[in-house]
Specification:
globular, 36 strands, eight-stranded mixed β-sheet, alpha+beta
């Protein structure tokens, strides 16, 4: 009696194989074919790079194997080492998956180092003693190898094949690295029975991106089995020939610049050009579609019924009674919400681990006094419910973990749990207990990453993580100018929203003296005196620091004085140095920076020249900069206000944003000219 897969595949033999066979594309690289001309400098080479990838070629094919299909991945890579800093690229790591006695096999590993000696190419073979294996976790191993005798100017190359029974593990591909890539190509051949979702992560264009249906033929070796499904001893193996259609795909990028870190990014994985695959389903002839990928609704149901996630939300903990008492103690819902958050923050300390599941019952977490993100925030949800709130778990991928693909229902995209509370007035508030300095509505900055997935009995939904609170810094100064050009007075630095959280975290990690010392490093020419800290513990109030300041002038009175107060108190440099940017600017939250200065002039001096007032706006109301200076008797009232109203700006908006910052910095550098009457 043939097996179910055998019956299904036998039907595939009847499929029309009349689709034309495409002429195989020639491989862009031939392993071992390195000539002396390959060492010559290339016109487009980035000689400042430590190394460059000359060609990276991979192809994955699904072929017939024993009792079914298997994945075969082949890779050939060639690099040139320019400087000693590039020697690390001679060490290569290959991850391998294994489970339930089955494992991926690394075969055909070969490698060479080529050096040009007296005009002749000398090659040295990869030594087997330079190949190592280490365990990563319960299901992953890593094979590492290092190519020999690498020096500046060497060309290295390697090739290998991975054979895998795990059809869900179609190899992903990375086109971009921290060194330039001259040519990167990936091909796949997938028979029609298997449906994969492919996700492109890239802000760079493809040189080639094509797919087409082609005729497909393979064979599967099937052992003879009895009516109970057991293999018949000493029986011959049947070979089944299969003809069908397949999807042949090819992606190419060329002359890819080295990836560089830039200001205001999440993890580099969100921006580096790459290609990911997920097995969505399998459908053999005359069989129902077998869904492999889950659904968000199914994921929500499974989590809510998991002992390490949802089931613990309904059990009593040591915080249940104190939380219940908050209902009478705090009739105002906002005050009660913050009191409940503070209760959890006082009881359990965050251990720094981002997790989706608890490692122990919530009762024990309270007793231990420490826990991971899931443990603290699931305990928070439990406590909020006891305090009379509707609260649900919110799955998050932190900024360092990567962006979420909302059309790909895979739980591994997340690494963090927060909470969403619905207030009596139906307002939704995001809360988190891992940071003792945060209040309700202020998620830690690491959580501000696109969208989160709400987990509830209805199946859940997507929730924006863009916060209602902004990053706001207000500077007010009362300064007096003397005849030598010295400035003295008082400055108040006020931090609200995420700026307040940042300032409190800086203070919590040091001392008031160190905090002032950091300010002194920012203003090395200034003398700071008599600091006063306000609202240090009152997290719902603006955090502020008041200091006396003295900025030295000349040794004698001057006829003409040039004053630049905003050069010190405002934006002194543009964070966006590069002329272009291929991916978004992600601030995490809207920003606002304001400076208000009252500058008193010496009695015997008058204004000769003032910077012009200025108003700039970004397209689509994305932000604005306003500068005003108004003389009033012997004082000048200066107001500068920079508003960035969006949490994220696209690559197309980068030029305008960069220009805005340039104009702000230039305006802050303009001098006020005063002269003796």
């Amino acid at each position: 009696m043939p097996s179910p897969i055998g019956r299904s595949l036998a039907l595939a033999m009847l499929l029309l194989a009349g689709g034309h066979f495409c002429r195989a594309q020639q491989a862009p690289i031939q392993f071992g074919d390195v000539k002396s001309a390959d060492f010559a400098p290339q016109a487009k080479a980035d000689t400042t790079a430590a190394a460059e990838i000359l060609c990276d070629f991979g192809q994955s094919k699904i072929k017939g194997g024993d009792e079914g299909f298997e994945l075969v991945f082949e890779r050939t890579t060639r690099l040139r080492i320019h400087r000693k800093a590039g020697y690390a690229w001679a060490t290569v790591q290959v991850p391998l998956y294994h489970k339930d006695g089955r494992k991926e096999e690394l075969n055909g590993l070969k490698g060479f180092t080529y050096n040009l000696v007296n005009g002749q190419v000398v090659k040295e073979k990869l030594n087997k003693d330079a190949i190592f294996e280490e365990k990563i976790d319960a299901n992953h191993l890593r094979r590492s190898f290092t190519l020999p005798n690498v020096r500046e100017g060497s060309i290295i190359e390697y090739t290998y094949t991975i054979k895998s029974d795990f059809l869900f593990n179609l190899q992903d591909w990375q086109f971009q690295y921290t060194i330039p890539v001259r040519w990167s190509e990936y091909r796949t051949l997938v028979p029609q029975f298997f449906i994969y979702k492919s996700t492109v992560h890239s802000y760079l264009p493809f040189a080639v991106k094509e797919s087409q249906a082609v005729a497909y033929a393979t064979s599967i070796r099937m052992a003879k089995k009895d009516s109970y499904g057991y293999q018949v001893a000493n029986s011959a193996t049947n070979t089944m020939q299969i003809s069908a259609q397949a999807l042949s795909s090819r992606w190419v990028m060329k002359d890819v610049a080295a990836f560089r870190d830039e200001p205001y990014m999440t993890t580099a994985r969100d921006y580096i050009s790459s290609l990911d695959f997920e097995l969505d389903g399998i459908q053999y002839p005359e069989q129902k579609y077998q869904q492999i990928t889950s659904t968000w609704e199914k994921i929500a149901s499974e989590l809510l019924n998991d002992e390490q996630f949802g089931l613990g939300l309904s059990k009593n903990t040591p915080l249940t009674n104190p939380a219940t008492a908050l209902v009478a103690q705090y009739p105002d819902p906002t005050e009660r919400l913050n009191a409940a958050v503070a209760l959890v923050q006082r009881t359990v300390r965050y251990n720094g681990q981002n997790r989706l599941y608890t490692t122990a019952p919530l009762k024990r977490i309270c007793e231990q006094g420490a826990g991971n993100a899931a443990e603290l925030n699931l305990l928070l949800i439990n406590t909020l419910r006891a305090a009379g709130f509707t609260a649900e778990p919110l799955l998050i991928s932190t900024r360092s973990h990567g962006r979420i693909q909302t059309d790909l229902p895979v739980l591994s995209q997340f690494n963090y749990v927060a909470a969403l509370v619905t207030m009596p007035n139906k307002q939704e508030v995001l809360v988190d207990a891992t940071d003792p300095l945060t209040t309700a509505g202020l998620l830690p900055e690491r959580c501000l990453n696109g969208q989160g997935r709400l987990i509830d009995k209805t199946g859940g939904r997507w929730v924006s993580l863009v916060p209602a609170q902004r990053y706001m810094r207000y500077t007010t100064a009362q300064l007096a100018l003397d005849e030598q050009g010295a400035l003295g007075g008082k400055i108040k630095l006020e931090h609200t929203g995420y700026a307040g959280l940042e300032a409190r975290e800086q203070l919590a990690g040091s001392t008031e003296q160190q905090f002032i010392k950091n300010l002194q490093q920012r203003w090395p020419e200034w003398t700071l005196t008599g600091p006063i800290f306000n609202n240090v513990a009152a997290s719902q109030q603006p955090f502020s620091v008041e200091v006396g300041v003295k900025i030295p002038g000349g040794e004698a009175a001057a006829t003409t004085l040039y004053v630049q107060p905003l050069r010190h108190l405002g934006e002194a440099q543009n964070p966006f140095r590069l002329e272009d940017r291929q991916f978004p600017v992600d601030f995490g939250m809207p920003h606002e920076h304001s400076q208000t200065i009252v500058l008193t002039l010496p009695d015997s001096y008058e204004v000769q020249e003032l910077p012009a007032n200025l108003l700039l706006t970004l397209p689509n109301d994305g932000g604005r900069f306003q500068f005003n200076i108004t003389p009033q008797q012997n004082t000048l009232h200066i107001i500068s206000r920079l508003q960035l109203r969006k949490a994220e700006y696209s690559a197309q908006e980068y030029a305008s944003l960069r220009e805005l910052y340039s104009r702000v910095v230039a305006k802050h550098a303009e001098a006020i000219v005063v002269k003796h009457k």
